[in-house]
Write a structure and sequence with these properties.
Elements lengths: L3 H15 L7 E3 L13 E8 L2 E3 L4 E16 L3 H20 L5 E12 L5 E16 L5
Parallel strand pairs: 1-2
Antiparallel strand pairs: 2-4, 3-4, 4-6, 5-6
Length: 140
Amino acid sequence: MPHYRSEYRRLARVALAAHPRFAGVDVRAVWPGSVSDEDLPVLGVLTPQEPSARDTQSSSTKRTLMQVALRRIGGDEIEDQLDEDSAVIEAVILATLRSGEIRCALEDTSVTSNGGGSANVGTLVMSFRIQSWRSEPTLA
């Protein structure tokens, strides 16, 4: 059985890749530090942080940070395009991950753009907080 964070990332990648807005976007399990303009657009999902608080002697509340990062190449309207992407990403992630046992909310959105060459490159990073309740792991 996969780890729950692995499952969050997998579910998010599958749902985003299936949405028509992201047809032609390279959805990656691992995003290298540098992506060339020729490889754009690219989307990655990661879970870089998870605060944990003990509820009982045998369970904890996990507050997983999941980030969705999208990098596109475009013209003067790249930030507008990323704003539209963000609305779709938020809807897809919330619909995919929310359940009776899991809470999910958007915490933060950032957009940056860089006009270094003949086109602008924009990056969207959306941070979601996924709250779940987990039994304490055992060695058995």
